[in-house]
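Action item from last week, closing it out:
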Amino acid sequence: MKHSIRYKITALIIVIMTISVGSIGVFSTVFMEKFYTNKKQAAIKEVYKTLQEIVAKDPDLEDSKNSSKLNSICETDGATLIIVDVSGQSVYSYGPGKNLADRWASLVYGKNINGNKGTVIESKKDYTLQYMVDDVTSDKHYELYSVLDNGNFAVIRMSVENFKESVAITNQFYLILGVVVILITTIVILFFMNRYTKALLSLADISKRMSKLDFNVKYQGHYKDELGVLGESINEMSEKLEETITELKSANIELKKDIAKKEEVDEMRKEFISNVSHELKTPIALIQGYAEGLQEGISDNPEDVQYYCDVIVDEAAKMNKMVKNLLTLNQLEFGGTQVNLERFDIVSVIEGVINSIGIKAQQKGVNITFRHREPVSVWADEFQIEEVITNYLSNAINHVDAKKIINVEITEKNGIVRVSVFNSGKQIPESELENIWIKFYKVDKARTRAYGGNGIGLSIVKAIMDRHGMGCGVNNYADGVEFWFELDSRINPKEGK
């Protein structure tokens, strides 16, 4: 609490007021007495000056207006006055006549009536001013006596208080008054400072919460002064900081995404190079080995030479197919191939693929069953969907077991057409179901190599369906595996999925 601005300002004001009251007491003690005596001396001189002016015009004070004027100034300045002619008769008097007459006699004849004694303060050719103390009554006063131009004798007296006692009383009064004023002022200051410090503490709390990124709190004060301006400025700063931090967070998220994407691309590039190198290593080795054998004339038997040539052609065909698949996949993944949406009959496309792949199926003794004959229209890129169906049927032929069962079916629900290709055979392990869509991934590398697969076909399927915004997947059954994909059959494909 001792560091609170409320108590600091209150203490500062109390100190200033205390110093002010003390300074007033010191100055009154040191300078007020001199100020008071100077004022009294000036006042008695002013009475004498007025007396001279009146006597110059009316020596015997015959005009009542002049007497009234003298009475008025004597009353105003608290002076007593007596004017005596050369015969000792009083011409004019204001105040206690007996005392002034005694002073006249004392001054003229050198008597010391009533034990008065004086100290000369100022002596001029036309008047003498002195400070008097009455030994009997201890009364103090200034006394000015003079012989006027008409020969009359004038005595002016003005009472002087015991100023030191007055100053002590005054200082005591100032002390009591100062203490009361300081107490009242302290209470008032604390009351008003409490209102302002509450606002300041509220602003401090807002700033502290802002430092912890809490921008929901706002200044709700109603002050129109500097505190109000400060509160509005803090609110404005809070809003701008919140906007800036939000933008920074968004930028940071985007940066993280970019970094993650770059890392993913780098990882894909490394994996791609590794996989391509691995896939090309075997066919290149075979082509090189058989070509060198032919070059060295390892056999004169035409059948052996033909076998060597067949192996070279077969391996070269596999390499060519892999490169073409990689180019297709690359174009799909990086947007190099546009999706040309058109409405076509999926049934006729399936039948066309079955016919084109029929020779391969016959060689393996497989009969592909497809009983759907009614046209089914879908929205898609016909060429790319034909690629998907071809990949599914090729995989089914390559992995079908001794039962030689391959079924193609079409189902439709709520405007979505699902095409599924089932082949009897060994199930895909559940742990591998998510990985089969990754390029170069092979569940059974030995068998895949046997039919020339390189793990790219399903990656192409996934990329095509992602470009269409539709789903694809695989299901295990007790007697085989089913691969499927979905297409939109509604007249307006933008109606929603």
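Closing note: The domain at 218-337 is CATH 1.10.287.130 (Helix Hairpins).
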